[in-house]
Write a structure and sequence with these properties.
By secondary structure, the protein is α/β, with parallel strands linked by helices. It has 2 domains: 293 residues, FAD/NAD(P)-binding domain (3-Layer(bba) Sandwich); 186 residues, FAD/NAD(P)-binding domain (3-Layer(bba) Sandwich). 29% of the residues lie in helices and 24% in strands. The protein contains 13 helices and 26 strands. Strands 1, 2, 3, 4, 5, 6, 17, 18 and 21 form a 9-stranded mixed beta sheet that branches. The C terminus is likely disordered. Pfam families: FMO-like, NAD_binding_8. Keywords: FAD, Flavoprotein, Monooxygenase, NADP, Oxidoreductase.
């Protein structure tokens, strides 16, 4: 049997997390080898996968972009093609395009304590041919949702509908909605993006929601940062704007959490001021939960308000009784005519997207593990995963995790250590890893890792806290168990001694 290819770090996914990890390794550990395994035929992850009209970020790119590479575009809430160009530029700038293996997916990964490395089984998408890569480390940049399909509930009577039903995650390139009546089911970030974009050419677009969502306007461009860019250049403007927006995100979140009633009143007042005088704000934009119990939806330059105000779009808050031949009948008795129905019903959360993980042949059950510093999993050696914030830009946390990975590898190299795994006290009380009310989180909660109540086992949602915890060299944490190769007694082979 041929020997497997060997790399220092195997990166799963060539999306924003995987590309960020590769760039950080190139910058900080240039002597380390790495390979990126990407199931699609191109890089970009989410920004290459989703092709629905108007797709854009719902976080500002001054915080969503990498801390080491300034965002130079004038758009702060940016269209997907601009984000994708930024990611491709990062790959080219750091010169690792030839290290990405496209059209392949990680099927399984088994840690061998004997050899102190991962044996990763990889499958070609087109042929099913399998190969193995040996890696000292695995970094999962696979994200948090299943790429193959979104969440798509079955609706009563949908087989009777004679029009087109489409999910945003599988958007047909040839879908023509010009002059058509469109109903978008949902009220999350995807829905509030789709509605104003499709309304520009559709006959009419209706956003059908079961429960209202908090919606807040934000300028598509950051005028202060663009002015600073003209005066002082990209780097200065980026640093200042990034610091400003991180602080703004945190202040907004903490203000909503500490003063939910006041936050609710402010958001309602903003919505009321941007909508027609007789618009029923309390029916369609007054959620039954507090702000940040679920993520706030951003509408750049108030585009959703514009579509609702000029009549090209409308919102209906009701429940679906059944699909009909020509649309949707609601429990109130109202019928919504439609030529196209878009089921913007969310994602299927899947942390490793079906990868079989094991340690010395014993399968890893994610729900039995505890997240350490939001970066590693208890009992699993040399494995780091990317999981960003739910209350601010995803990549703020991922950037800290990638930096932590590089420094941890450097720390271990200096001391001749080859493995590290977090170990949690089995009697420690645990909580769900994500304390968030979104449907896609609640549907997957039982399959996710847990978190502790305090210390490094607590999942922080504060960039400032994580910057302190992950940036400082606290690698002598008693929760970490290190290992190093030592000469074996027989046959001159190496054995692994686990330090406790």
């Amino acid at each position: 049997m041929s020997q497997p290819d060997t790399v220092d770090v195997l990166i799963i996914g060539a999306g924003i997390s995987g590309i960020g990890a590769a760039a950080q390794l190139t910058r900080k550990l240039p002597g380390k080898s790495f390979t990126i395994i990407e199931s699609r035929e191109s890089a970009g992850g989410t920004w290459d996968l989703f092709r629905y009209p108007g797709i854009r970020s719902d976080s500002d790119l001054l915080t969503f972009a990498y801390d080491f590479k300034p965002w130079r575009d004038t758009q702060a809430i940016a269209d997907a093609d601009r984000i994708l160009a930024y990611l491709h530029e990062t790959v080219d700038e750091y010169g690792f395009a030839d290290r990405i293996r496209y059209g392949q997916r990680v099927v399984a990964a088994n840690w061998s304590s004997e050899s102190c490395r991962w044996l990763v089984e990889i499958e070609r998408i087109d042929t099913g041919e399998r190969s193995t890569v040996a890696a000292s480390w695995v970094f999962s940049g696979a994200g948090y949702y299943k790429y193959s399909a979104g969440h798509r509930p079955e609706f009563p009577g949908e087989e009777r509908f004679t029009g087109t039903i489409v999910h945003p995650q599988q958007w047909p390139a040839d879908l023509d909605y010009a002059g058509k009546r469109v109903v978008v089911i949902g009220s999350g970030a995807t829905a509030v993006t789709l509605v104003p974009s499709m309304a520009k050419s559709a006959a009419h677009v209706t956003m059908l929601q079961r429960t209202p969502t908090y919606v807040v306007p934000l300028g598509r461009e950051d005028t202060m940062v663009n002015a600073l860019r003209s005066a002082f250049g990209d780097s200065v403007a980026y640093r200042v704007g990034r610091a400003k927006n991180i602080a703004r995100q945190r202040a907004l979140y903490e203000g909503c959490m500490r003063f939910p009633k006041t936050a609710r009143r402010i958001i309602r007042a903003v919505n009321k001021s941007r909508l027609p005088k007789d618009f029923p704000v309390d029916t369609h934009f007054n959620p039954p939960y507090d702000p940040w119990d679920q993520r706030l939806c951003v509408v750049p330059d108030g585009d959703l308000y514009t579509a609702l105000s000029d009549g090209s779009a409308s919102v209906v808050t009701d429940h679906i009784e059944t699909f009909t031949e020509t649309g949707i009948k609601l429990t109130s008795g109202t019928e919504l005519p439609a030529d196209i129905i878009v089921t913007a019903t969310g994602l299927n959360l899947s942390l490793l997207d079906g990868i079989d993980l094991s340690v010395d042949g014993t399968p890893v059950i994610l729900s039995d593990s505890v997240i350490y510093k939001g970066a590693m999993l208890s009992g699993i050696p040399n494995f780091v995963l990317s999981f960003g914030y739910t209350n601010s830009s995803w990549t703020l946390k991922v950037g800290l995790i990638c930096d932590y990975l590089c420094r941890l590898i450097g720390h271990m190299d200096e001391r001749g250590l080859t493995s590290v795994r977090p170990v949690a006290d089995p009697s420690m009380p645990t909580l769900p890893a994500i304390d968030f009310g979104a449907g896609y989180v609640q549907r997957a909660a039982s399959r996710l890792p847990r978190q502790g109540e305090s210390g490094p086992w607590r999942m922080s949602m504060s960039y400032y806290h994580d910057r302190r915890v992950l940036k400082k060299n606290a690698f002598d944490d008693p929760a970490l168990r290190y290992g190093r190769p030592v000469p074996a007694v027989s046959q001159g082979k190496e054995a692994v001694a686990q330090a406790s």
